[in-house]
């Protein structure tokens, strides 16, 4: 198998998509797949100016935002460039994660393996940076995305939430849609046993976006539990909210690409009792897969693709959208009153990591699911 790997940076770059591209590249190599990088195409300066005129025209008429990443002008312009690049290439397939605009209008006959953690149509007015688009921009986005999904030989998603949407909303044939879950982008213990004390319960909030990831809700929930006398502490990593409490520790930023700082993240994952991220919107949070590798139950929200990782009362707590801090505090209180349930959830978290939420499993499933493309 020779696959062209389309991405904005070389696939061996460990920073691309927070390390996810590298992990997929690594697993393909382990599956004896021959890989060649296809550098992502982009607009020239002249084309950017032309696009800006279109965007300004749209806003002038509708007074609404315009999707600058997925629209007809960008998609058709990039498709011509990618077709030109592929003209003299000999690939058995092209792996094109998230690359809707480059391939939706491409005329290549090479089978395309598309991958994403969501459909863009699901993110409209769900993620902050996919909000505020005008009606015609959203219509354009959906039509181009549908074209991409129908064109691809196979569509791989990281959650049932995303895969089911592609089938039900876009009517993509079920045999062209697969779910292969992501793994942990940092090293987890090869051997793990449950060993926690109950003198203090440490709740880890590991996220960059305090607002979208529900940081304030997590803090207020734990504050309620503190007032009831529960020995809970909060460890925040990745952001710096204005909180001054002796039971709250804050590390504003740790870089996974720095070995010392990566070790610090791993230390906190191993020393914490829960990962508490009551997110407001999410696709497939890699941090939840990483928590599973350390046997950490996750407390979060049943939104987006989160339920593909967390099963309520099995390997964590998953509460409905719009749940407030009091509801989270009540759910956590019930759990703290039965420490044996914490151990059970922790063991289940690690088991789910070992069976589903690891990149070795992704690599095996990838090869199984793309194999039919090469033997048509």
At the fourth CATH level, what is the homologous superfamily of the largest domain? Answer: Glycogen Phosphorylase B
Number of strands: 12
Q: Helix and strand string, N-terminal first?
A: EHEHHEHEHHEHEEHEEHEHEEHHH
Give average pLDDT, whole number: 96
Distance between the termini: 13 Å
Named at the architecture level, the CATH assignment of the largest domain is 3-Layer(aba) Sandwich
> Radius of gyration, Cα only, in angstroms?
22 Å
Helix-strand makeup class: alpha/beta
In what order do the strands lie side by side in the largest sheet? Answer: 2-1-3-4-5-6
The CATH class of the largest domain, by name, is Alpha Beta
List the uncertain runs. Answer: none
3D shape:
globular
Can you count the helices?
A: 13
User: Total domains, how many?
Assistant: 2
Strand content: 5-15%
Kindly report the CATH topology of the largest domain: Rossmann fold
Amount of helix: 40-55%
Can you summarize the main beta sheet? 6 strands, parallel
Structural features, described:
The chain is of the alpha/beta class and 376 residues long. It has two domains: 2-183 and 358-374, Glycogen Phosphorylase B (Rossmann fold, 3-Layer(aba) Sandwich); 201-355, Rossmann fold (3-Layer(aba) Sandwich). 42% of the residues lie in helices and 15% in strands. The protein has 13 helices and twelve strands. It has helices at residues 20-30, 45-62, 72-86, 100-103, 120-123, 135-151, 160-168, 215-227, 259-271, 286-293, 325-336, 339-355, 359-374, and strands at 2-7, 34-39, 93-97, 112-116, 154-157, 177-179, 201-206, 232-237, 248-251, 274-276, 298-301, 316-319. Strands 2-1-3-4-5-6 form a six-stranded parallel β-sheet, sandwiched between helices. The protein has a six-stranded parallel β-sheet with strand order 9-8-7-10-11-12, sandwiched between helices. Helix 1 packs across helix 13 and helix 8 (215-227) packs across helix 11 (325-336). The protein is globular and about 65 Å long. The mean pLDDT is 96.
């Amino acid at each position: 198998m020779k696959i062209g790997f389309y991405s904005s940076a070389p696939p061996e770059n460990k920073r691309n998509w927070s390390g996810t591209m590298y992990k997929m590249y690594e697993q393909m190599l382990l599956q004896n797949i021959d890989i060649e990088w296809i550098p992502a195409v982009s607009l020239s300066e002249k084309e950017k100016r032309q696009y800006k005129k279109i965007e300004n025209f749209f806003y002038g008429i509708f007074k609404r935002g315009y999707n600058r990443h997925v629209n007809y002008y960008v998609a058709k312009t990039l498709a011509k460039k990618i077709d030109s690049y592929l003209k003299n290439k000999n690939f058995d397939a092209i792996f094109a994660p998230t690359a809707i605009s480059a391939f939706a209008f491409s005329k290549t006959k090479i089978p395309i393996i598309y991958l994403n953690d969501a459909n863009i149509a699901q993110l409209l007015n769900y993620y902050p940076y996919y909000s505020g688009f005008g009606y015609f921009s959203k219509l354009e986005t959906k039509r181009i995305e549908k074209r991409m999904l129908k064109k691809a030989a196979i569509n791989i998603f990281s959650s049932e939430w995303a895969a089911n949407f592609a089938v039900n909303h876009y009517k993509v044939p079920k045999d062209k849609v697969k779910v292969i879950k992501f793994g942990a982008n940092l090293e987890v213990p090869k051997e793990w046993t449950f060993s926690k004390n109950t003198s203090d319960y440490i709740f880890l909030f590991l996220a960059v976006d305090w607002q979208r990831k529900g940081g304030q809700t997590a803090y207020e929930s734990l504050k309620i539990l503190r007032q009831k006398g529960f020995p809970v502490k909060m460890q925040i990593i990745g952001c710096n909210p204005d909180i001054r409490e002796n039971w709250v520790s804050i590390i504003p930023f740790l870089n996974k690409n720095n070995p010392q700082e990566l070790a610090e993240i791993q230390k906190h994952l191993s020393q914490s009792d829960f990962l508490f991220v009551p997110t407001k919107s999410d696709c497939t949070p890699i941090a939840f897969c990483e928590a599973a590798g350390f046997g950490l139950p996750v407390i979060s929200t049943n939104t987006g693709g989160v339920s593909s990782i967390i099963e309520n009362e099995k390997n964590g707590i998953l509460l409905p959208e719009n749940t407030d801090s009091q509801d989270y505090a009540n759910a956590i209180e019930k759990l703290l009153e039965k420490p044996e349930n914490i151990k059970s959830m922790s063991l289940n978290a690690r088991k789910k990591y070992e069976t589903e939420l690891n990149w070795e499993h992704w690599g095996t499933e990838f090869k199984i699911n793309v194999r039919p493309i090469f033997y048509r």
